[in-house]
Amino acid sequence: MKESLQFTHINDQGKARMVDVSKKEETERTAVAYGEIHMNKEVATGIKNQTMKKGEVLQVARIAGIMAAKKTFELIPLCHVLALTKCEVDFSWKTNQILSVHCLTKTVGPTGVEMEALTGVNIALLTIYDMCKAMDREMNIMNVCLVEKSGGKSGHFISTNTEVDE
Predict the structure, then answer these.
(1) Keywords, A to Z (predicted)?
(2) Which of these, 13, 123, 124, 146, has the minimum number of CB atoms within 10 Å of its CB?
(3) Residue 38 among known ligand-binding residues
(4) According to the annotation, is 115 in a ligand binding site?
């Protein structure tokens, strides 16, 4: 029997709704998202040497990413409120001028945490841009994606995106 296609965020009357996850099994769920910011040599040196005029860029971006992941339900319409049990934002230099960001989120619940991980990466990247834009307005945020997701009925997902450095 062919299953009919239905939008999960729209009810029978065509009105927006939050998906009912109350019958879903609670499982441990994790997600990892990734993104990059490309910058000029002057900004990269300033971040590495912690000499940027606005302060320690990576510490501020880390806190911003964690706070954003926790508030995803306030930013993305129809997202569920989730109690994150873990959120980490980490940085690494992919090249001398490309900084990569990973955000790991975790919870135990009936729905996934990939939107929280993606929100954490995006806000960390935007915070870096904000703190460094006076020195390089041409910074480029790129390759934001979901790297891995586990838990729930859809199982374990691992991206085949070759742009992601691990």
Answers:
(1) Lyase, Molybdenum cofactor biosynthesis
(2) 13
(3) no
(4) yes
pLDDT along the chain (166 residues), means of 10: 66 85 90 98 97 95 98 95 96 98 96 96 98 97 97 90 72
Exactly one of 12, 20, 90, 130 is catalytic; name it.
Answer: 130
Catalytic residue check, 90: no
Q: What tokens appear for 98 in the block?
A: 């490309």
DSSP sequence for 18-75: ----TTSPPEEEEEEEEEEEE--HHHHHHHHTT--TT--HHHHHHHHHHHHHHTHHHH
Q: How many domains does the structure of the chain reveal?
A: 1
State yes or no: 79 annotated in a binding site: yes
Three-state secondary-structure class, residue 116: helix
| pTM, rounded to two decimals | 0.90
Residue 5 lies in a domain: no
